[in-house]
Amino acid sequence: MKSLIKKLKSPFECNVEEAERVEDITYHLEELLKTIRRSIVAFFLALLLVALFPINWVTCPLMHLYCSPEDVGNAVGAQYIAELIKWIGYVPAMVALLRIITLAIMHMGVKPVICHAESLFNAYVMVIIWGALVISAPYIIYQFLCYLWPALHEHERRMLRNGVLATFGLFLLGELFAFTVVVPFGFELVVFFGQAAGAQSIWCLSDIIEFAVMTAIITGLSFLLPIVVYYLVLLGLLRPEQLKGRNLRIAFLAIMFLAAVITPGGTGISMLAIGIPMFVLYYLAIIMAERALRERQQKTPSFEFNYKGGS
Question: What is the reported pTM?
Fold first, then answer.
């Protein structure tokens, strides 16, 4: 009876523990709000950087792509703006980025035009937001890692660190693949079908930017499929043998269907151009997960996940 009484806590002790829990939750919420505020500030600073940074004040091999009075056409407004930029010697990064995209599209045979008053404004907004996301993403990820880091064990920290680095690397790889393969191929496909029909390819500038940015985002996200598969296997939610054999063929068809949906035109060539790299990354993720599980089982024989190799 005495031992039972000793185990019982007084109301004062319970109130102290409850107050400590509330204080602990309040502290974590305050730290989370600080992390979110820093991330928002970083994003808006990146917006200003992309919008206003004088890119022509630094040594750049792309200087010949900037606006000049000789290549902007005969429009009086365009000539005036080009002369003004040349006289001031100031070219913001957003102008340079949009100019590079426009010239790249023109070299494919597509003629970009300003369809309505807000078309050019929308194009600049999309370029600025996309550039700001790319620039600020590493800092934002770093801030959230700093917030989560103290609450994690050593193996969880290692897993999270490797996962974040792999996610960021694969997303950038997907962006690079989109802008070098998928987007140019999509525009060339449009030009080909347009010429076959005897039509000239004239696109609204904002539609061009939206097409390029959305295709890049979807391609970058699709390249994250191996990360999802890897951690599902590592966490024990999937077994490697479940992803092989007949299921591997089903996964191949599913990836090709996804590639056909997200690629412009949906033709066989464009589907294979993005589907094959995705499938290779998917299969590499299975192999890496198998290896990680095997190493974990060797280090910890009592590991709960019963690893079985083979198909």
Answer: 0.65
